[in-house]
Design brief:
The complex is a heterodimer of chains A (255) and B (251).
Chain A (H helix, E strand, L loop, with lengths): L15 H4 L2 H16 L6 H17 L4 H7 L4 H13 L4 E4 L2 E4 H27 L2 H10 L4 H30 L11 H27 L16 H24 L2
Helix pairs in contact in A: 2-6, 2-7, 2-10, 3-6, 3-10, 5-6, 7-8, 8-9
Chain B lengths: L7 E9 L5 E10 L4 E5 L6 H8 L7 E6 L2 E2 L5 H7 E4 L3 H4 L5 H11 L4 H14 L15 H13 L5 E5 L7 H13 L3 E6 L2 H7 L2 E6 L2 E7 H6 L1 H6 L10 H4 L3
Parallel strand pairs in B: 3-8, 3-9, 6-7, 7-8
Antiparallel strand pairs in B: 1-2, 1-4, 4-5, 9-10
Helix pairs in contact in B: 4-5, 4-6, 5-6
The chains are: A mainly alpha (255), B alpha/beta (251).
Chain lengths: 255, 251
C-alpha cells in the first residue's frame, strides 16, 4: 500500500516545478493534454516537440527519466486495446514483417499510444512534483467544492489506517486456520468486510467528535495561502500555450 | 480580591444516553487551577461520558458543569471547547490533517487565528511536546508515541484552561510512557487524566477521583487511595503484580 500523504508518486525537491503553485500546474497540464489531443495524428513532428517539452520539464523538476518511464507502465492495460486495432481493423492493408495489418487500424493505434503516453507523462510529472496536500489545495483554488477536497483528504489520510486494519484482520483469520481457496469459503472474508465497514463508520464518528472538540463548526480552516501571482500563472500557462501553437501549426500544415 | 473560580466544577451531573441507559448518577467534584487530578475507574464506569460532558459534546440531563466560571451550555460552546482540551485515546482519531503542523493549527484556526500568530501557537505547542522537528511530516509516518505527543500538542495549541487526557498511557512502550510523563509534568496547566493505569496516576497526579457505576466513590490523595486495598477491590481497580501498596503510604 502507498504511504498516504507523502504519496508514493511524490518526489521531494525544491525545483522551480516543485515551487510552482499547484493550481497552475493542474490547469497547465489539463490544457497541455487538450492541445495534444487536438493535434492531427499525421503530424509526427508535433508529437516530437511535445515529447521534448515534457522531457525538458522533467529535467527542470529533477524527475529521473527511468522513474518516469516506470510510471508510464500504468497505461499498459489501456494500450492493450490499441494493439488489437491494426489486427482487427478493416480496409486497406500493409504487410509488416509478414503480418497483414489494417492501415486505418495502425493510424488509430498510433493516435491512442502517442496521445495517451504524452498525457500520462504530463500528469506523472505534476504528481512527482506536487504533494497530495497541495494538489487538493490547488483543486480547491480551482473552485472544486470544499466538501469534495475534504473528503478526498480524509480518504488519503485514512487509507493507510484502514489498510492496516484489513491486514490485521486477515492475519487474525489466517492464524485461526482460515485458508480461503474456494468461493464458498468467502463467507469469513465477507463478514470481515462488514466488520471493517462498521469499524470505519465508528472511527468516522470518533474523528468527528475529536474535530468538534477542537472547535470544528462545519468548514475546514484554510491554512495554506496558495494564491498565485499573474507571473506564476503566465509561466505555467506558457507550456500549454506553446503546445496549442504547435497544434495550430500542425493543422495549418496539413495538406 | 476574590479567588479565581475553579478550573472545572462538576455539580450533580446526571446523564442518560438516548437509548435510555443511565451512565451518570449525580457526579460532583471540583478541580482547582493548576491541579493534576486522575480520574480512575474500571471500564464502563462512565469516565468517557463524563469527559464529554466537560466540553459540551454531551449535555447533562441534570446538574451543571462550569469551566473556569463559565457554565457549559449550547450558547457558548466555542469558548468552552477552547477552554477544555481533550486528548482522545486513539491518536489516529485526532490527527486527520495532511501534516503535523496543519493538524496542530486546526484548533486555533477554528478559533479564528491566522498568519504569524497561528504559526507562533503551532511552534510553541510542538516545542512543548518536543516534536518541533516533525512539523512538516504526515502524522501516520510517526511512531505511536510521537503521534500521541502530537495529539497533546493539537490541544495545547488552543491554550486550554484544562487539559483532559483519556487513557494517555495506553499502547505506549515504557520509553514513550516516560517521555509523555515528563511532558505532562512539565506543563503549567490544569490536568484531568482519565485512566486505569494506577502507577501512572500515582506518578503524575497528587490527587485522584475514583468513579464506579456512574458516581464518584472516592476523592483524595492518590497514594492514600491506592494504599486502600478494600477501596480498590470494591471499585474493580487493581495494582499491577509486584506493586507494593504498603510502600505507597510512605511516599
Amino acid at each position: 500500500m502507498g504511504a498516504g500523504h507523502a504519496h508514493p508518486l511524490y518526489l521531494a525537491g525544491t525545483s522551480p516545478l516543485h515551487r510552482a503553485r499547484p493550481q497552475c500546474k493542474i490547469a497547465a497540464s489539463v490544457a497541455f493534454v487538450l492541445a495534444v489531443v487536438a493535434t492531427p495524428r499525421e503530424a509526427f513532428w508535433a508529437f516530437g516537440v511535445y515529447a521534448l517539452a515534457l522531457a525538458g520539464l522533467a529535467a527542470l523538476g529533477r524527475v529521473p527519466f527511468g522513474l518516469l518511464a516506470r510510471r508510464l507502465v500504468i497505461e499498459l492495460p489501456f494500450l492493450a486495446f490499441a494493439v488489437f486495432l491494426p489486427v482487427v481493423g478493416r480496409g486497406e492493408r500493409v504487410e509488416v514483417l509478414g503480418v497483414p495489418l489494417a492501415v486505418g487500424g495502425l493510424w488509430a493505434a498510433w493516435n491512442i499510444v502517442v496521445k495517451g503516453t504524452l498525457g500520462v507523462a504530463a500528469s506523472a510529472i505534476v504528481a512527482a512534483t506536487t504533494p497530495v496536500a497541495e494538489l487538493l489545495g490547488g483543486l480547491e483554488r480551482l473552485r472544486l467544492p470544499r466538501a469534495l477536497t475534504t473528503i478526498a483528504g480524509f480518504m488519503i489520510r485514512y487509507a493507510d489506517v484502514i489498510a492496516d486494519e484489513v491486514r490485521r484482520m486477515r492475519i487474525a483469520r489466517i492464524s485461526r486456520g482460515h485458508d480461503p481457496r474456494w468461493i464458498w469459503q468467502a463467507r469469513a472474508v465477507a463478514s470481515s468486510a462488514g466488520t471493517l465497514f462498521i469499524r470505519s463508520y465508528e472511527r468516522g464518528e470518533r474523528v468527528y467528535l475529536a474535530m468538534v472538540s477542537r472547535g470544528y463548526a462545519g468548514s475546514m480552516p484554510v491554512l495554506q495561502d496558495l494564491a498565485a501571482t499573474r507571473a506564476q500563472w503566465l509561466a505555467a500557462m506558457s507550456v500549454p500555450a506553446a503546445a496549442a501553437l504547435v497544434a495550430a501549426t500542425a493543422w495549418g500544415l496539413r495538406p | 480580591m476574590t479567588t479565581p473560580p475553579p478550573a472545572l466544577e462538576v455539580d450533580g451531573v446526571a446523564f442518560a444516553s438516548p437509548d435510555g441507559h443511565q451512565a451518570l448518577f449525580g457526579v460532583g467534584f471540583s478541580i482547582g487551577r493548576g491541579e493534576r487530578v486522575a480520574l480512575l475507574g474500571p471500564n464502563g464506569a462512565g469516565k468517557t461520558t463524563l469527559v464529554l460532558q466537560c466540553n459540551g459534546v454531551l449535555l447533562p440531563g441534570a446538574g451543571r458543569v462550569t469551566v473556569a466560571g463559565l457554565p457549559v451550555a449550547s450558547e457558548h460552546l466555542r469558548e468552552i471547547r477552547r477552554r477544555v482540551g481533550i486528548v482522545f485515546q486513539d491518536p489516529d482519531d485526532q490527527l486527520f490533517m495532511p501534516t503535523v503542523a496543519e493538524d496542530v493549527a486546526f484548533g486555533p484556526a477554528n478559533l479564528g487565528l491566522r498568519g504569524p500568530e497561528l504559526e507562533t501557537r503551532v511552534k510553541a505547542a510542538l516545542a512543548a511536546v518536543g516534536m518541533e522537528g516533525h512539523a512538516g511530516r504526515p502524522p501516520h509516518h510517526l511512531s505511536f508515541g510521537q503521534r500521541r505527543r502530537v495529539a497533546v500538542a493539537t490541544v495545547l495549541a488552543m491554550e486550554p484552561e484544562i487539559l483532559i487526557l483519556d487513557e494517555p498511557s495506553s499502547n505506549l512502550d515504557p520509553a514513550s510512557r516516560r517521555e509523555l510523563a515528563e511532558i505532562v509534568t512539565g506543563l503549567d496547566i490544569t490536568i484531568l487524566m482519565v485512566t486505569h493505569d494506577l502507577p501512572y496516576a500515582l506518578q503524575l497526579c497528587p490527587r485522584s477521583l475514583i468513579m464506579n457505576g456512574g458516581t464518584i466513590t472516592a476523592d483524595g490523595p492518590t497514594a492514600a487511595l491506592l494504599a486502600d486495598a478494600e477501596l480498590l477491590a470494591a471499585n474493580r481497580l487493581e495494582l499491577p503484580f509486584g506493586f507494593d501498596p504498603a510502600a505507597l503510604g510512605r511516599r
